[in-house]
Each structure stands twice: as structure tokens, then as C-alpha cells.
Amino acid sequence: MRLYTFYSTGCQRLTSNRIAIRSYGLIESPVDAKMVRRFPRSGDGENPGACYGAKRPASGRRTKAPATRLPAVPSRSREASFSPYTVDLRVGWLTDIHLNFVVPHKRSRFYAQLREQQLDAILLGGDIGEANSLTQFLAEIESGLGVPIYFVLGNHDYYRGSIAGVREAVVRQTAASRWLRWLPTSGVVSLTDHTALVGHDSWADGRLGHFFRSDVMLNDYVVIAELIGLTWAERYAKLNELGDQAAGYLGDRVSEALAQRRNVFVLTHVPPFREACWHEGQISNDDYLPHFACRAVGERLAAIMRDHPDRRMKVLCGHTHSSGFARILNNLEVFTGGAEYGEPRLQQVFELE
Ligand SMILES: [Fe+2]
Ligand SMILES: [Fe+2]
Fold first, then answer.
1. Is 66 inside any structural domain?
2. Which residue pairs from 173-176 have beta carbons closer than 8 angstroms and sit at least 24 positions apart in sequence?
3. What's the confidence (pLDDT) of residue 113?
4. Range of the domain at 9
5. How far is the CA of 126 from the centre of ligand 1 (A)?
6. Does any domain span residue 65?
7. Which value, in Å, is the radius of gyration of the alpha carbons in the chain?
8. pLDDT tens string 285-301
9. pTM of the predicted model, to two decimals?
10. How many structural domains does the chain have?
11. Which tens digit of pLDDT belongs to each residue from 182-238?
């Protein structure tokens, strides 16, 4: 039996200027503003299948591893030297911030650095804390940032609790919150006249790689109530069910979104494609893919985008803690965020027209 431990990467930069959304990396350590570096790009362009990931440093450890309108925010024109056109919204993307590993003064500094970015909204991709700390951290983020926070949950957010219990608590909290919006209960969010947002936590559904030949044993399976004590067959069925829930929700919401907007962001925790399931600059192998990717979601999103060649989709995900980019189709890109325990950071800022 192996317990998965995350490998953490350094700072990377992802860029893309597609779908009338200008984005550029603003990935910095909250501690010492480490140098931002660009990914090596292989086959970049309009060709489907282009992908690149952050390589493992030579000294690194190896482990196997109906529409909701955005609350009113001010529109701003950015400086001419910064962007040559009017920007309606600056959106910052975070994922896998694991605040339970971050001491209070460091969390405060992280929030201050985010405020300095003058963001109009935050997209938060899950693994925020654990079941006994999640709502506390959500409240802290809300008071620390004071802008709309659209979030999904990650597997760690359920640790030492239950999926049902955590989701109930989050529904109660967001119902009473000014800025917190849990995307699985938010429907289609209209970010701008051209761009919508949908999201779901998702779950690795076991269908990619070789689930029954894998001996990877995640902590998920011993600390989340619904997953404890299952046989491999029962676990596979449960993971399938969780993945199918996500695929059903996202499929329906994306279809709604594309009827209204030409661009859609999909925020989710789990990479929905093999090509986006990065680990140290490589695609995860067949032992790890069952536990780190969701085939059901990927198949649903790709099918929709094949039927909508005039629409564009960006998927933002995390979970593997290794950053990378994959172009699945000409109109479907996936950004996977990197993470390091104790070092929460801004992944990227998107400026939307
Ligand atoms: Fe994580
Ligand atoms: Fe995760």
C-alpha cells in the first residue's frame, strides 16, 4: 500500500491570449516574490493536442504519484501601457491553497497581496482546508478580500468529515454570505457580456488508467466518511458516481452558458483529461490517473465543444499540484495549477472584455 504525497513545483507562468480574454501570469510566492518563468512550449498554436507542463527540478523529490449575474463590481480601464483596450473584469485564479498548512500571519499577507492586484473577482479551485476548518477559511477569505469569490471544493475539503456534511455546511454558509458563491449551486454566472463561468468540485472517477491494477491508496479513502471501508469494486462504483454527478451538472450548465455567451470558463478541482493530469512535467501514469482525473467530465465537455466550434472554453483545474497546459481541441484549453503546501499563490489573472 502506498500513500500519495504531493510533489510541489516552483513558480511557473502560463499565458494565453485566446477567446478575447487576455491573461498573463502573476504567479509569485507570497513570501519573496520569486522569479516568474515561462513554460517551455512545444507545438503551441492552434493545433489540438499542444501541451506543456512544468518540469520537475533536478533536486526535487519524486513521488508517484438560469443565469446568475455577477454582483456589481466597478468596470475599469486599465493603463494604456498595460492593456490596449478596455477591461471589464480582472479575475484571479487560485487553487489548492491548503490554508490549514499556512500560519495566520502568512495567510494575512497572502490576502493583502491579492488585494494589491485589484481583482474584481476570485476563482478558487478547491483544497482550501479540511472539513473542520473549511468554513472558517472561507469566512476569512471573504473578509480578507471583499470581492466575489466563486469556488469549488477539492477532496481535501472533505477530509475528516463527510461529503454530505461539508456540502450542507457550505450551502448554509454561502446562503448567508455577501461574496461567497459555491459554483455547484450557482448555475451559470455571467462574468461579462461575452464570458460565462460554471463550475463543479468534480472527483477523480477511476476511469482513466488502470484502477484495478493500481495499488495507489489515497488518504481520501481512509478519512472521508463516504469512502471509508469500501472494497475496490465498491470504491470504483462510488468514484464513478461522483464523477457522473459532476459531468451531468457541468454538461447541462455549459450548454446553457454557450447559448448565452461565446466564451465559458469551467472551474473544477480535478483534471478532466489525461492530457491535463500533470505530474512533474509529465502526464500521470496509469497507476495514478484513476485517482487524479475525471474521464466523465472530460468526455462531456469535449463532446459539447465539438458541437460548438464557434465557442471557446477554458478549463481551470488543480489537484495534482503540478502545473501544465493542454489544448484538447482548437476551442478547448485546460490549465492545471501548481501548488506547494504552505505557500498559497495566485495562479494567473485573466482580464476579460
Ligand atoms: Fe491539493
Ligand atoms: Fe485535491
1. no
2. 173/135, 173/138, 173/139
3. 98
4. 2-41+48-55+72-352
5. 7
6. no
7. 19
8. 999 999 999 999 999 99
9. 0.81
10. 1
11. 999 999 999 999 999 999 999 999 999 999 999 999 999 999 999 999 999 999 999
Angle of helix 163-175 relative to helix 134-145, nearest 10 degrees?
30
Distance 288 CA to ligand 1 centre (A): 15
The CATH number for 279's domain is 3.60.21.10
- Residue 178 C-alpha to ligand 1 middle, in angstroms? 26
Q: From ligand 1's centre to the CA of 311, what distance in Å?
A: 30
Q: What is the pLDDT of residues 59-106, one digit of tens each?
A: 433 333 344 444 433 333 333 333 345 578 999 999 999 999 999 999
Amino acid of residue 88: D
Residues within 5 Å of ion ligand 1, judged at the Cβ atom: 96, 127
Q: Cell numbers for 179, please give them.
A: 461574496
Question: Is residue 67 domain-resident?
Answer: no
Cα 230 to middle of ligand 2, angstroms: 20
Do the domain assignments include residue 222?
yes
